[in-house]
Amino acid sequence: MRMLALRFASDCTTTGNIAAEKENSTMSDKINHAPLAYENEPFLSSPDGRILRILSEYAEPLARFRREQIQDTVVFFGSARVHSHDAADADLAALNPPEPQLTHDQRKALRQQALTARDMAHYYEDARRLAFLLSQWSSQIPARRRRFVVTTGGGPGIMEAANRGAHEAGAKTIGLNIHLPMEQMPNPYITPSLNFEFHYFFMRKFWFAYLSKALVIFPGGFGTMDELFEILTLAQTEKLAKKILVVIYGSEYWNRLINFQTMIDCGTIAPQDLELFKMVDSPEEGFEFLRDGLTRFHLEPESRRKFAVPEIAKTRP
After folding, report:
1. At what angle do helices 158-168 and 104-138 cross, to 10 degrees?
2. How much is the average pLDDT of 32-41?
3. Which of 69, 103, 185, 312 can pair with 145 through a Cys bridge, CB separation 3.0 to 4.6 Å?
4. Could you give the 3-state DSSP secondary structure of residue 90?
5. What is the CATH number of the domain that holds 242?
6. How many CB atoms lie within 10 A of CB 215?
7. How many domains does the chain divide into?
8. pTM (2 decimals)?
9. CB–CB of 217/227 below 8 Å?
């Protein structure tokens, strides 16, 4: 009997140990922490997390602009395909001698493209010069924060030229880049702490207008025209409570592209709508217009300012 009792006790102990091990194993499977929502990468990258991604493209640039003491900006737009004089001359020289595998028509087309690029190169140099003059002047404005900081889309072409001119003036300069399938790399003249990359086009466009006090439009394509007409529409419809100066650079290009007088003749815009912008043909002329307008509309005495900086591009109610 005693042996049976000992065996029974041993069996009960063994059974209890096995049950405890199973329970402990089950409990250890259950106590893993769930990921924090803001560290949950699948959620943040999902459609449900889109609102957080959008808000991030508002809050993070705003924090950086405040940290870098950026009060307002002057935004340069223009083609990414315009090269500097040196680059255009090098591309033209590279065609000699011509590639033997190319047909006569292909060689002719390539040469014409290179000649056109060289003709357009003066716009690169003019954007560089205008950004230099503007940055040199704005850097000397007595203010607690940086005024009229040259801002671009951060890519090559006219964007690079404007960032380059500001950089050569010793000023900070902003690049608002965009993530594209055809990778657009930031140009090397952007101030590193003011180099941004956006996913959402509309958030990038928001930041172009948000602190802008002036827009400078060089020859460009669809994107340039999009930005030009968006700001002109907001100004025309009085949706902006601040004055944004608009400079359109290069009358030869723009008059061939757009006949504003036709719009007046057909009644689609009013004659006074042409006063929303200024057409200029030299960096000095553009700078004088910007300097005088920015001084008149945005350099009033400190005591008259209503808003803490950075100033919001507020709309009318």
Report:
1. 40
2. 88
3. 69
4. helix
5. 3.40.50.450
6. 25
7. 1
8. 0.84
9. yes
